[in-house]
Amino acid sequence: MSGQLRSDQRAELALRVTPPWLLGRAARLVERNVLVHRRMPLIFFSAPLEPILYLFALGVGLGALVGQVDGPGGTTVSYGAFIAPALLAASAMNGAVYESTFNLFSKLRFEKLYDAILATPMTPRDIAVGELTWALLRGSLYSVAFLGIAALAGLVESWWGLLAIPAASLIGFAFAGVSMTATTFMTSWQDFDLVQLVLMPMFLFSATFFPLEVYPAALQAIVVLSPLYHGVELVRALMLGVFGWSLLLHAAVLLALGTMGLRIASGRIGDLLIR
After folding, report:
1. Residue 92 in contact with residue 171, Cβ under 8 Å?
2. Which one, of 231, 238, 229, 235, lies nearest residue 211 by Cα?
3. pLDDT per residue over 5-39, tens digit each?
4. Who has the most CB within 10 Å: 49, 61, 81, 234?
């Protein structure tokens, strides 16, 4: 009869309105982002290009001149194997930051996407969790691509390097949470100049290209405050197969930053959208 739903239609509708067991209603926002980006595959292929170029320019080119350097745990490794984990960590950072800043700002301030989403049963926390999860997925894809290239180049020296992918996801979690919080305070596109102002020094001075010990003592104290430094040390130890209790500290710092950022971002999104 017209105006009535068939049993298969009712079942499909019930499935759509029932929150998935994983992520809850936030999974719907992830699904929405997947559908939007499925016709733009070049975005995913081009994003890891910059760290891969750095890898071959510095790790292979300059590495032939530098030779061996001191690695974690007193090991000695090639310069290429030393910087490859750092560039993987930077790739995860960039993927998470750009998704959680530029794209989030556009949806929040101009597209008014979240205003429409809050007309559904979704909450500001669902929005924050969904966007953060999407940022993690993008960052993880970049990390997988980069790790594959590094492995083909012979710069992954341990099978423990496979754990660099979840480690990179943890890096993305930390930076996505912090970046989402920062984005909620931005009011114009000019504010994004500050993003690059923060990212570039962090990229250059987080023990990315040189061991921490080569920095002056005063600068070392600043370097260890960088979230990227903790990510670099975590991924580097895994890819080189060197373990120590300090890895738990690095992971804890990243987890704490991501959790704090997610909580604050959820509150801020609610404040901005629910008046």
Report:
1. yes
2. 229
3. 566 655 555 555 555 556 778 888 888 888 887 77
4. 234
The tokens of 24 are what?
């809850």
* Beta carbons of 220 and 137 less than 8 angstroms apart: no
Element housing 251 (H / E): helix 246-273
Q: How far does CA 222 lie from the centroid of its chain?
A: 22
| Of 16, 37, 38, residue with least CA distance to 27 | 16
Residue 228 and residue 206 in contact, taking contact as beta carbons nearer than 8 Å: yes
Residue with tokens 């901005």: 272
Give the H or E element holding residue 57: none
Q: Nearest Cα to 150, choosing from 242, 251, 78, 97?
A: 78
Q: Is 205 exposed, middle or buried (0-12, 13-18, 19+ CB in 10 A)?
A: middle
* 198, 164, 44, 95 alpha-carbon torsion, rounded to 10°: -20
Q: Is the pTM of this model over 0.90?
A: no
Distance CA 201, CA 205 (A): 6
Q: Which amino acid is present at 63?
A: G
- pLDDT tens digits, residue range 136-151? 888 888 888 888 888 8
